[in-house]
Specification:
- The chain folds into 2 domains: 218 residues, Tachylectin-2, Chain A; 192 residues, Sandwich (Jelly Rolls).
- Helices cover 0% and strands 47% of the residues.
- The chain contains no helices and 40 strands.
- The strands form 9 sheets. Strands 25, 27, 28, 30, 36, 37, 38 and 40 form an 8-stranded antiparallel β-sheet that branches. Strands 29, 31, 32, 33, 34, 35 and 39 form a 7-stranded antiparallel β-sheet that branches. Strands 15, 16, 17, 18 and 19 form a 5-stranded antiparallel β-sheet that branches.
- A hairpin with a 5-residue loop joins strand 22 and strand 23.
- It is globular.
- The mean pLDDT is 96.
- The structure holds (Z)-L-Arabinonhydroximo-1,4-lactone (6LW).
Length: 514
């Protein structure tokens, strides 16, 4: 059998997974984007469908003032006695909390706060029903970061014990992303180390007691690509993608008793640069004779994963292309995300999706009028059809490749010398570059298009159904995480309106991946 990694391409990092019978549910981090914590469902761990978000209300997810890559860090999802729990950290306000639901397709509770320091919380139920809370922790005695654990009350979130340091990892920086499992009577503590960059890895330890001492697996790390340096040839457009930075994993068994690791990694566009985020991947796990997990038979993680066995069938896999008709759609499909808490009045369905500019622009770390989808693959063609008659040179609407307020390329419809025009504005750190304006017909619907490959974005505009002309180009390089002072996010393809009074009507948006 073979399947392709990433199984959830695009900015879907820090995956955590649980299983209920034959159904798997998976969550990811969402940082400053709203709604928070995308929620996915699968029957085979390979084909995933987004069924919603966990944090859909501002009362669960206040994001005001959340900087780039602030807000929601690594979530954990667990299922216990008919109830789903999702625990995470809002690093911009409040710290750790969990929410719960008895209906995975319904609303989740308001937050129950947990006062433990650190990030990357996880929950573990022991056989006696007691609940334990793990997260990153700072050990005062040794002055080192480690994994800390306390027993908590599920009703109030209160700590019922002090937080104790339970494992320091194997010596990599940033021991984090802990998950505790009880397997064949032993407590296994699996964590990420090495930082979420090129030295990322996953390590594991076990103990007879959930307080430790934890014995490190002799073949740690059980997952890493840190020793694999791709060649220039590996990055050529037609070769398979290169995978780096694997780690931050969760472990799951299937109904047949096979084990799997769900984790993230990223695909650089070229050496040491990636711009579409950390993505969710899957690998098979076996157990050695000493009871330690072996990931993917100890082989590197590759885009095409070959699994042993006679089943030569390729698992079908979503290709993530989509086409949205906003004249029919009246509820926003779950793939769309806002920046921070949206100003509701600026979004409305009428004869299309009406985006009205508010006070904030894409340059502000506020709540601009923006709706985006995560870019899933390097090669794509995205097109929006819009009705927009800018009232002045300050009113703008268009489509964008957006990574942060300081890293985005915007194809803008506005006015210059009284005429309706299109231009490409590229914002990178403290640089702002604008293309020459290209005149557009004064009336009628416009098609705005982004075409991309691994290394480039090119932007086109023109009357709907007519010939589109190139408005400008930009390399993918300046939108890379490595140039953003280290975001945890990735590029979105989106629609926006800015400059007070600008009112645009988006009729459709389609995105085709090649
Ligand atoms: C995540 C943590 C990490 O919480 O990145 O570098 C954070 N380490 O595990 C955000 O994804």
């Amino acid at each position: 059998m073979r399947y392709q990694n990433p199984v959830i391409p695009g900015f879907y990092p820090d995956p955590s997974v649980c299983r209920v019978g034959e159904d798997y549910y998976l969550v990811n981090s969402s940082f400053e984007f709203f709604p928070g914590v995308p929620l996915y469902h699968s029957r085979d761990l390979i084909n995933w469908e987004q069924i919603g978000h966990v944090l859909t209300r501002k009362s669960q997810l206040p994001l005001e003032g959340a900087p780039n890559s602030g807000g929601i860090f690594a979530p954990t999802i667990r299922y216990h006695q008919g109830r789903f729990y999702m625990v995470t950290t809002n690093v911009t306000g409040g710290g750790h909390f969990f929410v719960w639901t008895d209906d995975i397709y319904g609303e989740w509770s308001d937050p129950v706060w947990v006062k433990q320091m650190g990030i990357d919380p996880s929950l573990f139920w022991d056989d006696d029903g007691k609940v334990y809370f793990q997260s990153t922790f700072f050990d005062e005695k040794t002055q080192r970061q480690c994994i800390g654990q306390s027993e908590i009350s599920l009703e109030t979130g209160e700590l019922l014990t002090e937080t104790r340091s339970i494992w320091f990892g194997t010596g990599g920086k940033c021991p984090e992303g802990p998950h505790l499992y009880k397997i064949k009577g032993m407590y296994y503590l699996m964590i990420a180390e090495g930082g979420t960059e090129y030295g990322h890895m996953e390590t594991i330890a076990r103990s007879h007691s959930l307080w430790g001492p934890f014995e490190s697996c002799p073949h740690n790390p059980i997952l890493t690509q840190r020793d694999y340096t791709p060649t220039i040839q590996d990055y050529r457009d037609r070769t398979p993608d290169v995978i780096q930075g694997v780690g931050h994993a969760d472990l799951i068994d299937d109904p047949e008793g096979n084990w799997w690791l769900v984790f993230h990694g990223f695909r650089p566009s070229q050496s040491m640069l990636h711009h579409i985020g950390r993505e969710t991947m899957v690998a098979p796990v076996t157990w050695d004779s000493e009871g330690w997990p072996v990931v993917n038979e100890d082989k590197p993680i590759t885009p095409w994963m070959e699994l042993p066995g006679d089943n030569k069938k390729e698992l079908p896999q979503n290709i993530f292309s989509f086409s949205e008709d906003f004249t029919e759609e009246k509820i926003l499909p779950v793939r769309w995300a806002y920046l921070r808490n949206p100003v509701k009045e600026n979004y409305a369905f009428s004869s299309g999706l009406i985006l009205t500019a508010g006070k904030a622009s894409l340059e502000d770390p506020g709540a601009p009028t923006f709706l985006g989808v995560r870019q899933r693959q390097f090669r794509c063609e995205a097109e929006a059809v819009v009705e927009f008659s800018p009232g002045s040179e300050l009113q703008e609407a268009g489509i964008t490749v957006f990574h942060t307020a300081e890293h985005h390329y915007d194809l803008i419809v506005t006015r210059r010398s009284g005429k309706r025009i299109a231009l490409l504005r590229r914002r990178v750190c403290d640089l702002l570059v604008e293309s020459a304006p290209v005149e557009l017909p004064e009336n009628g619907r416009l098609a705005l298009q982004i075409r991309s490959d691994r290394l480039h974005y090119e932007f086109f505009a023109g009357p709907e159904g007519g010939d589109l002309v190139s408005i400008g180009k930009g390399r993918t390089q300046p939108l890379s995480t490595e140039l953003t002072a280290g975001t945890f996010t990735g590029c979105f393809l989106g629609m926006f309106a800015q400059g007070e009074g600008a009112k645009s009507n988006f009729l459709s948006f389609r995105c085709e991946y090649k």
